Known about the structure:
By secondary structure, the protein is an alpha+beta fold. Helix content is 25%, strand content 34%. It has a seven-stranded antiparallel β-sheet.
Amino acid sequence: MAKQEKLLESLKMLGVEPIEGRGIISQFGKPNLSAKVASFLYKTEPFYILQLCKNELIIAQLKGYSFGSGDIKDDDPLKVEFSTIKSVSVEEKGFNYSVTISCEDGDIDLTVQQKELSNLRTSGALSNENALGAKNWHADNLDTTLKELKKLSK
Length: 154
């Protein structure tokens, strides 16, 4: 379980200024239904924090599921300057949201779990602040983060 405060500290160490309450759990989108089923059954795809920062959007792989972990896996996350973003679309797709961020260099397709079932899904397992699941920052941040993402469209 990743504590939001520790994740923000990990991101600050990379030289960015994350905005508190503007981070959610995400995965890169799957190209087809078969890939979606395989990912669901085998849990092979990593999870990322999608974090809005002062000047950019960061997508950083989470290190693991351990309680209290706030670590990101690498020192070189995907950084997308706000100025390079052309549009952002958010669509409901089953139990998830499909998020497409169109940039000058191409599209970034992400899947984000909806908040209502978050405590029963991986986003809840990764974002619960304690073992009881009393605070789930993914669910708490979801609506506002998606709303702010949409505002990045030009």
